[in-house]
Records
---
Amino acid sequence: MSKFKMAEYIWLDGATPTRYVRSKARVVDVGSNPSIKDFPEWSFDGSSTNQAEGHDSDCILKPVSFIADPIRGEGNFLVMTEVYTPDDQPHESNSRAQLRAVLDAGAAAQEPWAGFEQEYTLFANRTPLGWPESGFPGPQGPYYCGVGADEVHGREIAEHHAKVCLEAGLIYYGLNAEVMPGQWEFQIGFRGDPKEACDVLNISDHVWFGRWLLYRVAEEYDVSVSTHNKPVRGDWNGAGMHTNFSTRDTRDPKKGRAAIDAAVEALAAKHQEHIVLYGAGLERRLTGLHETCDINTFRAGAADRGASIRIPKPVDQKGYGYFEDRRPGANADPYLVAARLCTTVCGVDEAVMQFNSWPREETQLAAVAAE
Ligand code: ADP
Ligand code: MN
Ligand code: MN
Ligand code: MN
């Protein structure tokens, strides 16, 4: 076996209003059991990713975590990186550095965990997968968790994605077909084993690895993946990224109820600060219909899927565990969602949270059809 293996370096670009993943590969000689320090820093042309001007275009990629590459197979790696400027500062698009800053400023002591439910829509050309070329499929109802060729479209892609996520060692939790036909969800997060690293930083890395793998797998089917919040206007569900969140105190059987109540109260006071970081075009999804709470209202409730924050029924009954923030859109950046949740719930100094909004201009995403 050749000692030369490939490492696919992944980073977030500076695209507005929604950042996207980029990656490029290089040959590495890191042995079969490397540590993150064995992967060299690298650079790329930031003028092609909205991260630098053409006359001074180098940006630096710093490896921060890695997993097995299930696409190239045994011995190859996928490497998550943070983007730095040549003078060794986190680039202004580096939202992972923002999450690290919030953790370092005190949130880490409360051991925040997250679980993300990533919804997405598959598109073939300009229509969601399985939709007729003109007109619409039958109204929503039979599609959510459906089975059968009339109900679900693209299962081979969703299952192929599940397989590679597990081979890569991601903390992949599960998948389901969604309410709108052609729409799916996968989850990354706590699976019941406290030995797995479900801290917000690792789980957010895994969401980005999971997204990269989804785009990559779907390439092989010539299908595109959209994380648009509202891929089809009208009476069709949008796509979200529900974020399940807990701290040492919310998980504590004695302190849980009070800690969850306190978290909800803190979140109620910071609704707008969260909304501006939860994905571009969120107003199209948070309408008050289709299992959402409207964007201008904050509401929390047990088992309420029309609330901003839902306390799952079993958590409400036991009196401890986690809560679900239903507001983030499918196009939100998990690093920023987690950083904002940690700031509010763990009482971190607001000055540390420098990403106070993400550019909100409404640009058209490539894969958005039917708008
Ligand atoms: P829903 O009922 O909203 O569809 P899912 O079953 O899709 O929920 O996802 C549940 C999510 O909750 C998973 O991502 C899981 O990792 C996460 N989760 C479970 N327990 C915890 C916890 N203690 N802290 C944070 N997240 C958790
Ligand atoms: Mn779900
Ligand atoms: Mn869902
Ligand atoms: Mn959910």
---
Amino acid sequence: MRKVNGYVAHSAKEALVPFTFERREVGAKDVQIEILFCGVCHSDLHTARNEWQNTVYPVVPGHEIVGRVTAVGANVKAFKVGDLAGVGCLSDSCRVCPDCADGLEQYCDQEIFTYNSPDKYTGKMTYGGYSNQIITDEHFVLRIPTKLDLAAVAPLLCAGITTYSPLRHWKVGPGSKVGIVGLGGLGHMAVKLAHAMGAHVVLFTTSPNKIEDAKRLGADDVVISKNPDEMKKHLKSFDFILNTVAASHNLDVFTELLKRDGTMCLNGVPEFSHPSPSIFNLIFKRRQIAGSLIGGIKETQEMLDFCAEHNITSDIEIIAMKDVNEAYERMLKGDVKYRFVIDMSTLKVL
Ligand code: NAP
Ligand code: ZN
Ligand code: ZN
């Protein structure tokens, strides 16, 4: 076991504080990464505050991890010391079930998340990227394109793949009219990715001060979702809507914007469920409401390569580790353009 420094939540009501914990030794198939940057996802906040009622404390959040390889096990083939590497939300899975065989490890019943999952190596829980080092099986380690800004790549490991996967699954491309709901960490990546895929992109926001930014990021049109007249102009016109909102809200105002057979996919996982959707809105045009969870490892690599090809990264604000609690408060107010990323060199060795 080796000592690692990080930041931890000890309970739902307490601020995150410095923490020292143990990680396993580097196994034959493991990659050891010195973490250089870690994005701050809204899921980190939901988990730190036990909003999904599944948090096991102490919890070390963080699943948008990039850094440099500092050691590899004897059987590791794809990485060597000095390489850039990334770890996202997934750290392990059963490897044999149909989901794993299809490269969809995120849907494996035995998936192990990067934090707040049982850790078979330590007997504790997995601890995430708000720390200076991580050790992960190479199957779950991503190659990071060297041409992109490293700090701005970190959010691709969750916000990027979580939006890329449904956009691909529902075949978004030239000729599709796509709605993105919410311009936060996930939403701003969705706008960039859907634009790069060639779709006509409409951003729905509750924040009038984000209109100009949304256009700069690639939206063809921006709609204030609280304005019924603006919403009406788009009735029955969308092939696909990706909803990234982190709070409970009325879904009907969006389902009625879908064409026949259109789908709204939910990415957001709010603390409280959405009110039940109108069945009439669904049956009259055979519309669907779906959900999507992050993405598999193969698709995450595909997304990173797509981003390198199209020069896409996240718009970020770099913070020091000690400022993560303030960052959580600002994220709740929508006061970030559009992802906080922790510079891990600011994590003082305890
Ligand atoms: P975020 O940066 O906080 O963005 C959420 C956006 O939702 C905000 O920017 C805001 O956009 C909108 N919003 C927030 N409160 C709202 C309210 N009361 N009413 C209407 N809109 C509101 O969060 P994120 O990191 O992008 O994460 C978004 C959600 O996705 C979270 O619930 C997170 O846990 C979840 N998530 C899911 C997966 C998955 O695999 N499915 C993966 C990662 C994250 P506007 O200001 O533009 O309205
Ligand atoms: Zn996340
Ligand atoms: Zn499996």
